[in-house]
Design brief:
The complex is a heterotrimer of chains A (434), B (833) and C (174). Chain B is built from 24 helices and 35 strands. Among the domains of chain B are: 147 residues, Roll (Ubiquitin-like (UB roll)), CATH 3.10.20.740; 150 residues, Alpha-Beta Plaits, CATH 3.30.70; 150 residues, Dimethylsulfoxide Reductase, domain 2 (3-Layer(aba) Sandwich); 98 residues, Barwin-like endoglucanases (Beta Barrel). The chains are: A alpha/beta (434), B alpha/beta (833), C alpha+beta (174).
């Protein structure tokens, strides 16, 4: 992709500096919005653009903004920068290299829903990024883009950062709000939804960083322009984070609807020499394992196609590539441990179920398991399914179920070998791939 | 009546108020949906997932917005493939719920198996076994075996003290969150919380002392497993060995309904023994709760130190005697002293006891004195809240004024009810010289100085008699204009003199603002004992000039009071009385100087009635067999009366009560039968289905009856000319010290309980740091209070920046005899000889 | 004496300004990070001090400290070497990297070096999957990423810290 929309810093050097950003049309959308347009105009154009949430759920952004009632104030906007899904690192690049476009998107969203205060919730590990972001916000305040009565209008806006402290579940909307409010980061019951009762029980919009980064361009160029990229139901571009057994890991901005093949073999350089691709996880650890056959590789990467053709959501488009050197039982042990560690513990099936799954996969990879254990593992996933309070529990079973279904021989192999070491054997690759 | 919704549950039509959740709706129709984290008194949580049921909703035509109908005219109902949690789902018109089906049973089995993967196989040694919802539900729906490998089960602390009163077994905890939510939502004490996450989610406490809440015991009732147990009952007995015995707590004027659990045990010589105290449901009184004092302080009832026989002073020493001897001696004296006889009794006695004693003494022309530091019961009898009063029904049309009281310490369950009432919109006006835990929920706070109580209430009157800067007009109007108004008055920092004026001022205020004679209006006294209101009703009044009375008395009959132990100066005076009879459970200091000591049965070994502070009469029932050779107070009075020509009911408390009913207008139409009637209660708590409400006991033995207040009986009420007490003089070199009530004090009955040592208040003088500095005192320093009652009393200084700077506070019942505010000379350690 | 309030008064005020005045509870997390600066863990005293400053019960503050992975309630190294061994990093050699580090530092995963400078911890995805293997260094109130590591580059970083680190009287890194 030569003309980046979101990763514009790859075209323009030093775009993370305010003067460079301004020189390149920065904040013209925001300025014209608050001086010439109504909040409802911004809402309308974003709705019509068909922009969908880029955090994983793919919910139409403009529709979400439209849910906020006008009889309860103040309104809040929260940017979800808690990027913690394994295999996801797209928001990081935006925050590090093109922060102003994201901030401008956040500012436009705030104006659209008439919020006077916005928060950026960053995962705690982004400590450095948060510090720099705070400096950038201070710069903007100095330059008159944030604060009171901006550009001589009635509109005032302040943006603050809030650091998380190492909890994947805080990427879930309502858990994020709980965390921001200073409570345990455990998801709330829905309804009510954040749009109606969110931060401090007020109407709140929560959007992913990448989603917001699209907004200034949409406001600038219009809804129709956005449909020039991607597909009809999934318009626009998406940043795909490519990782795993791949020669060129990294972020790739592509129109939605680009097939997996182009990402993995075209730009990604394919799997390391001497190996064949085995499977794809399109949505990070919260994916089913997709057998990397021709059908899969030809599948367009958009929200509809993935679901319809591959039976798994595109999610955050964190594509993890797995080659034939990897045993799926080992892989699944990694994912079960991830979910066990990150479960918030509020609901029984996730709290007990992720713990149980991890215990079983531990023994499988240690060679201290039997065929019954693999069957039991499958049974436990069904036990968890459909009962959890939030999506974490539901997603925790996907890799496990698909691995047992499609890669049973991998499990049988570890049972047969009866390795009696107590340590988890390292996955292949002693050296990083260059 | 709000909007009602009709749905079907298991094909049964059910109509309930809109907004109710499916679990509660099913319960009201007699259908039990298993729950762990849900509790009808808590907000729904949706955590445990055991209440998953099939829910179908009628399909709606998007064009007409009407239900799509089937051929037979009934709405087409669509069931979603995913089960939903009944506790978080509000009912809706036409909803169909299926609580018993293969799908639901499978889901329950799976959730139970998941819970049991971490739950230890402790049933044989677990206190909850036998009254355990998890056990019962596993028997009903659970898998017979677990597929989890036993040696992979998580190992956690099994004996973790959340403070010294409540123990946590971390392995048993199923993370339902009921305890934490109870502490946060209901009693506003965030002293326990969930921490860590995932499988490690656990309960912690970081208060000093741990689990610092006077309601902590209730969490052991609502805990659905044996994770939370009290130090009192832990490993005490198996539930199936216990018999329930209903009673009433008499520590404070709320009158919580309780149930004693008893069993006969070999280690106690085959005697029936109290193993624990549980709350009994009485929604208008204590809902399903009780405070930790009521739950934990009962050991005195069975103490070995109890008197076992009458004692008579012979040759200067008290010696055991027979009842006949004792009664002969007493009746002999009664005849001799004529009308120079006085009875001194406290609100610890039941109505029956007090009635018979009064009859005895009045028949001789003598006086009946209430031993108390608080006056005003005649006012609350006249102006008390009437029938139909129910705190839970009150809303914004009601104003409640609480004056001179630390309600959290003096009547914990009323604090709980009023704070919840405030949450429902009641205008709560809190008037007190210092901040208390009720302030947080107050609509208005009024600060005044100790001694100004009555003047404050006068300032509330329309026209504001004696305008006080502290009461602004808005606040006064809020009270005067409210449709309903209830006035609670306590004894914060005051004694008889000021409380009498306070009660009078309260009556006047209620009368002048028209808040009397109807439900949810009236005066409530926050008395020091459980039956103080009853004592007033039965004809006992405090005496404003005890020394004068004592001079004129030749025989004093003291029942349920220890004036000599409380106050050495009073002891000196009492000693001078010719003949003293003491009737008590223990050989108190007063008993030691008596001429005759008579042993009595505690309320657990007989029956009777108490009248609560809000004028509800409740029966208590025998819990344990009465000890031999001991009688109830009322029986003793009858035994004494007979030889002097007075026929009193000696054996049946019910018959004493019928005499009470025919004597006092407020008590008429009440009988032991009417008192034993039970009103239907919601939520439905009980033995049948433990998981829904917890293990509090349901009430089969009577929810009590309210008294009519006297003012209804045509007695004309004239607002009394209020004489404000003179301001308290503070001569140079003295400090104003005022008495305040603490829940866990160092009183007589607390001596038999070792669990509450860390939480008891002792001889501590509480003052603002500035005040301490003025007197050259430091926190932690020991200072001596010269009360001109013998040796000065030591007390430890404790500073608190929230206290007013004009007075120092001293807890009652801590060993220092201060019954009212006074100027006290402080003697420093160095100055003491 | 509230040490946090004394040492960080201005910063605390700045933090409080971010949230509505009646929502002081939101500041618990930032204050926990503050409390962790000197010794790389939060002790009971800090919890009470935060409770005092924000008027939130000590139990509630402690519950937050226990929920999140970046708050430590037990002492560890002045620098916590946190290696991501989650799936994408593992696919690129992170497990082997962790083992090598453990051998180099002569401590088990979860342990602390005898000079108290380093502890070695295993953590979940740090959003650096394209630069694996990597670790983050949590210490002195900062969190910094060190990406595309080999055991050699890691050694350089560790020894660099060892040489320049000095502990003051209270055992805190200066």
């Amino acid at each position: 992709m030569t003309d980046y929309l979101l990763l514009r810093h790859r075209n323009i050097e030093h775009l993370d500096q305010l003067d460079v950003y301004l020189q390149n049309g920065g904040f013209s959308a925001f300025k014209s919005a608050i001086t010439n347009m109504q909040p409802s105009d911004i809402l309308k154009v974003v709705k019509e653009s068909g922009l969908r949430g880029r955090g994983g759920a793919g919910f139409p952004t403009g529709v979400k903004w439209g849910f906020l009632p006008n009889n309860l104030w103040p309104h809040y906007v929260v940017a979800n920068a808690d990027e913690s899904e394994p295999g996801t690192f797209k928001d990081r690049e935006i925050l590090e290299k093109n922060p102003f476009q994201f901030i401008e998107g956040l500012m436009l969203a705030s104006f659209a829903v008439q919020a006077k205060t916005a928060y950026v919730y960053l995962r705690g590990e982004f400590w450095q990024i948060a510090n720099i972001l705070q400096n950038k916000l201070a710069e903007l305040e100095q330059a008159g883009f944030l604060g009171d009565h901006l550009f001589g209008t009635e509109y005032s806006l302040n943006i603050y950062t809030h650091l998380g402290a190492g909890a994947y579940i805080c990427g879930e909307e309502t858990a994020l709000l709980e965390s921001l409010e200073g409570k345990l980061g455990q998801p709330r019951l829905r309804p009510p939804f954040p749009a109606v009762a969110g931060l401090y029980s007020r109407p709140t919009v929560i959007n992913n960083v990448e989603t917001l980064t699209n907004v200034p361009l949409i406001v600038q160029h219009g809804a129709q322009w956005f449909y020039g990229f991607g597909t009809e139901k999934s318009p626009g571009v998406k940043i795909f984070s490519l990782s795993g057994c791949i020669n060129n890991p990294g972020n790739y901005e592509l129109p939605l609807g680009t097939p997996f093949r182009e990402l993995i073999f075209g730009l990604g350089g394919g799997v390391p020499k001497g190996h064949k691709i085995k499977a794809i996880m399109p949505a990070g650890a919260s994916s089913s394992l997709v057998v990397a056959d021709k059908k899969a590789l030809d599948t367009p990467m958009d929200y509809e196609s993935c679901m319809q053709i591959l039976g798994t959501p595109l999610g955050s488009a964190s594509v993890i590539v797995i080659d034939d050197s990897i045993n799926m039982a080992n892989l699944v042990n990694k994912t079960t441990h991830f979910f066990k560690h990150e479960s918030c513990g509020k609901c029984t099936p996730c709290r007990e179920g992720t713990y149980w799954m991890a215990k079983i996969t531990d023994r499988i990879v240690r060679g201290a398991a039997t065929d019954d254990d693999v069957n039991l593992l499958q049974a436990v996933t069904s036990q968890i399914e459909g009962k959890c309070l939030c999506a974490l529990g539901e997603f925790s079973i996907m890799a496990v179920q698909s691995a047992i279904l499609k890669y049973r021989p991998d499990f049988d192999k570890l049972l047969a070998e009866r390795i009696s070491e107590l340590e988890t054997p390292a996955l292949k690759f002693e050296q990083p791939v260059v | 009546m709000g909007k009602m919704v009709t749905l079907t549950i298991d094909n049964q039509p059910v109509t309930v108020p809109d907004g109710m959740n499916v679990v509660d709706a099913a319960k009201s129709a007699g259908i039990n949906i298993p729950v762990f984290c849900h509790h009808p008194k808590l907000k729904p949580a949706g955590m445990c997932r055991v209440c998953l049921v099939e829910i179908g909703r009628p399909e709606i035509d998007s064009a007409t917005k009407q239900f799509i109908l089937k051929d037979d005219g009934s709405p087409k109902v669509r069931f979603f493939p995913k089960l939903e949690t009944a506790c978080t789902t509000p009912v809706s018109e036409g909803m169909a719920v299926i609580t018993e089906s293969e799908k639901v049973a499978k889901a329950r089995r799976e959730i139970l198996e998941l819970l049991l993967t971490s739950h230890p196989l402790d049933c044989p040694v677990c206190d909850k076994g036998g009254e355990c919802p998890l056990q019962n539900l596993t028997m009903q729906y659970g898998p017979p075996q677990s597929r989890f490998l036993f040696d992979e089960k998580i190992k956690l602390a099994k004996n973790y003290p959340l403070g010294e009163l409540i123990f946590l077994d971390r392995e048993r905890c199923i993370q339902c969150g009921r305890c934490v939510r109870f502490q946060n939502e209901i009693v506003n004490d965030p002293v326990i919380a969930l921490s860590q996450r995932g499988r490690s989610l656990q309960i912690i406490t970081n208060s000093e002392p741990g689990f610092d809440s006077i309601f902590s015991g209730n969490t052991t009732d609502i805990c659905p497993v044996g994770a939370l147990t009290t130090a009192d009952f832990r490993f005490g007995a198996r539930p199936w060995e216990l018999k329930p015995a209903p009673s009433i707590c008499n520590h404070c004027p709320v009158g919580c309904n309780i149930t004693f659990n008893i069993r006969r045990e070999a280690m106690n010589g085959g005697k029936w023994t109290i193993k624990r105290v549980m709350p009994r449901q009485n929604e208008p009184v204590n809902e399903i709760w009780t405070c930790d004092k009521g739950r934990l302080v009962y050991q005195y009832l069975e103490s070995d130190q109890r008197l076992t026989s009458p004692l008579i002073r012979k040759n200067g020493k008290l010696e055991e005697a027979s009842w006949q001897e004792a009664i002969d001696l007493i009746t002999e004296k009664i005849i001799v002293v004529g009308y120079d006889i006085a009875a001194l009794a406290s609100g610890r006695l039941s109505n029956e006891d007090l009635y018979n004693l009064k009859e005895l003494v009045h028949s001789r022309g003598g006086q009946t004195i209430l031993y108390t530091h608080m006056a005003g019961g005649d006012q609350s009898a006249r102006m008390g809240v009437g029938e139909g009063t129910d705190f839970s029904t009150l809303g914004p049309e009601t104003a409640i004024l609480v004056i001179a009281c630390d309600l959290h310490q003096e009547a914990p369950i009323w604090w709980l009810r009023l704070k919840n009432a405030a949450r429902n919109g009641v205008k709560l006006i809190v008037a007190n010289p210092r901040p208390t835990r009720l302030d947080e929920f107050a609509t208005h706070i009024v600060r005044y100085q100790y001694g100004q109580e009555a003047a404050v209430l006068s300032a509330f009157e329309p026209g504001g008699k004696g305008f006080l800067a502290e009461v602004n007009e808005l606040t006064a109007r809020e009270f005067a204009d409210a449709t309903n108004a209830i006035l609670f008055f306590g004894s914060e920092g005051i004694g008889l003199l000021h409380s009498e004026a306070l009660a009078q001022a309260g009556s006047n205020l209620l009368y002048k603002t028209g808040h009397w004679g109807k439900p949810n209006n009236g005066l409530i006294g926050i008395w020091p004992h459980g039956n103080t209101q009853g004592a007033w009703d039965m004809g006992f009044k405090p005496c404003m000039d005890m020394p004068d009375l004592i001079c004129k008395t030749r025989m004093m009959y003291i029942a349920g009071a220890d004036p000599c132990g409380d106050d050495p100066k009073l002891a000196e005076e009492i000693k001078s009385i010719d003949f003293i009879v003491v009737q008590d459970l223990f050989l108190t200091t007063t008993a030691e100087i008596a001429d005759v000591v008579l042993p009595v049965l505690p309320y657990t070994e007989r029956e009777g009635t108490y009248t609560s502070g809000d004028r509800r009469v409740q029966r208590f029932y025998p819990v344990l067999p009465p000890r031999k050779n001991i009688y109830a107070d009322f029986s003793i009075a009858a035994k004494i009366g007979r030889p002097v020509g007075l026929e009193l009911e000696e054996n049946a408390a019910a018959l004493v009560f019928s005499r009470i009913a025919s004597t006092y207008p407020g008590y008429d139409r009440l009988t032991y039968q009417t008192l034993a009637e039970v009103q239907e209660q919601w939520p439905i708590i009980g033995r049948g289905d433990l998981y829904y409400g917890g293990t509090s006991y349901d009430n089969h033995q009577g929810t009590g009856c309210r008294l009519k207040n006297e003012i209804i009986f045509g007695e004309l009420f004239e607002p009394t000319e209020l004489h404000l007490p003179d301001p308290i003089q503070i001569p140079g070199g003295t400090l104003l010290v005022v008495p305040v009530t603490k829940l866990f004090d160092n009183g007589n009955l607390m001596q038999f309980n070792s669990l509450l040592e860390k939480r008891k208040w002792g001889a501590e003088l509480l003052m603002h740091p500035d005040l301490a500095e003025n007197y050259g005192l430091q926190a932690g320093e020991v200072v001596f209070l010269d009360l001109e009652k013998g040796e000065p009393y030591p007390a430890v200084i404790k500073t608190d920046g929230d206290l007013p700077s004009g007075a120092a506070l001293l807890p009652r019942s801590c060993g220092i005899p201060l019954s009212g505010p006074r100027a006290v000379k402080l003697v420093k350690m160095a100055e003491k000889d | 004496m509230n040490q946090l309030a004394e040492n960080y008064w201005e910063e605390i005020q700045e933090i409080l300004k971010r949230y509505p005045p009646d929502q002081k509870r939101s500041a618990v997390m930032p204050l926990l990070f503050l409390a962790q600066r000197k010794k790389n863990f939060v002790n009971d005293q800090s919890i009470r001090e935060i409770s005092d400053i924000l008027q939130v019960s000590p139990t509630d503050v402690a519950s937050i400290a226990g929920f999140y992975s970046l708050f430590h309630q037990e002492p560890g190294g002045h620098y916590r070497i946190q290696v991501c061994t989650d799936l994408p990093c593992a696919l690129r050699g992170a497990d082997g990297f962790l083992k090598a580090l453990s051998e180099y530092l002569s401590i088990e995963v979860g342990g602390t070096t005898s000079d108290g400078l380093f502890s070695l911890e295993e953590v979940k995805c740090l959003a650096a999957c394209d630069h694996a293997p990597m670790f983050q260094l949590q210490g002195k109130g900062t969190i910094r990423y060190h990406q595309e590591q080999t055991i050699e580059t890691a050694k350089t970083i560790i020894e660099g810290i060892r040489q320049s680190a000095s502990l003051n009287m209270e055992g805190e890194l200066s």
